[in-house]
Design goal:
The chain has 358 residues and is an alpha/beta fold. 48% of the residues lie in helices and 14% in strands. It contains 13 helices and eleven strands. Helix 2 links the parallel strand 1 and strand 2. The chain is globular, with a radius of gyration of 24 Å. 42% of the residues are buried.
């Protein structure tokens, strides 16, 4: 009996010794940094429900403090649009922005923010998460040592602010406008002088007449920037951005260093923020738009002939871009998924919006 007890104790002790390194490794703590393309205090993009700082808080709480992420808004650690390179180089572990900011480095990245006349929030999220979009996104970013994922969405955005009314297509000729992404390429075909400015630079540029028009997000966030004080014509047709994805990128080596449970926590927190941020926008924009109208803002859709011309030019621009093999691969995936989603949306959302709700 004594001999059996000694053997049992020895085996148990050996098992505990073997298990200990696994326990220690599972409990390792990580302290990361996240940079951001948007300035301090920016609702949705920096602070508030579903924002990057909310994401950081979620990850810390869900991981029991094993993964803490220190957030830096634009200019606090690096300039606004240098996050892609900073994460790629491993200077920081994460960055929050929009993928269309990196069009000069990865032209096909623009499709993972939004596509003019493309998919709404539900459709874009479905393509990315269930239609092969995420795998293509990861493939595009792999050469840059980046792991991308969605972590926010504004939903449909406003066409933007104009100092003079747009009554016909010719009114775009010579217009200086802040507009990023694929829509900028469409506007350029109509004679617009396209400018890419960080959010914090939009108001002073519009107020001083450096630009004649500007697109940012939607009523709540546009009002916060004071854009209504610089322009009065606010077009509501969100042809250019029927949704807008906030991108989270993670340095590949840092990502690979995380145990599986922490990777799942990051993905789960990002998915939660994708929904929370979108519903926050849905909850805040109506009051803000009503308030802007009370301030004298003239809000309404672009004339239908203008919309039709924009749609025609958009197809030309996208078809031309698709001559590039990498862009074509993403474009084909997007358009094939959109065709399927449109058939469903046509008998579900469209019917509800146009018939049932009305």
């Amino acid at each position: 009996m004594l001999r059996r007890n000694l053997i049992t104790g020895a085996v148990a002790g050996a098992g505990a010794a073997i298990a200990m390194p696994h326990v220690a490794r599972a409990q390792k703590s990580f302290n990361w940094k996240m940079t951001n393309a948007y300035g301090p205090g920016s609702p949705f993009y920096v602070t508030g429900p579903g924002s990057p700082t909310d994401f950081c808080a979620m990850v810390k709480a869900m991981s029991g403090g094993r993964l803490t992420i220190q957030h830096f808004a634009a200019g606090e650690l690096i300039p606004a649009l240098e996050g892609f390179d900073a994460v790629s180089a491993g200077t920081v572990e994460m960055n929050a922005a929009n993928s269309y900011f990196w069009a000069g480095k990865v032209p096909a990245a623009q499709f993972f923010t939004t596509v003019p006349f493309g998919l709404n929030f539900q459709g874009q999220t479905a393509w990315i998460m269930h239609g092969g979009g995420l795998q293509l996104w990861e493939e595009l970013y792999a050469p840059f040592n980046l792991v991308p994922m969605p972590m926010g969405n504004t939903g449909v955005q406003m066409t933007g602010w104009f100092r003079k009314p747009i009554e016909k297509v010719e009114d775009f000729q010579g217009l200086k406008m802040r507009i990023p992404g694929l829509a900028g390429k469409v506007y350029a075909q109509l004679g617009v002088d396209v400018k890419l400015l960080p959010g914090g630079e939009i108001f002073p540029a519009l107020e001083r007449g450096v630009i004649d028009a500007a697109e940012f997000v939607g009523p709540y966030q546009d009002r916060r920037l004071g854009l209504q004080k610089a322009a009065k014509y606010y077009y509501t047709t969100g042809w250019h951005e029927p949704n807008n994805v906030t991108e989270l990128v993670v340095n590949k080596a840092a990502w690979d260093s995380l145990p599986e449970d922490l990777k799942q926590i990051v993905r789960t927190a990002a998915a939660a923020c994708n929904t929370i941020s979108h519903t926050w926008c849905e909850a805040t924009n109506a009051e803000a738009l009503d308030d802007l109208k009370k301030q004298g803002v003239i809000a309404g859709p672009l004339p239908q002939p203008v919309i039709e011309k924009l749609k025609t030019v958009t197809k030309t621009v996208l078809d031309d871009l698709a001559k590039d093999a990498k862009i074509k691969k993403v474009y084909d995936s997007f358009t094939a998924f959109k065709a399927k989603h449109d058939s469903w949306a046509g008998v579900s959302e469209a019917v509800f919006q146009n018939q049932i709700r009305a």
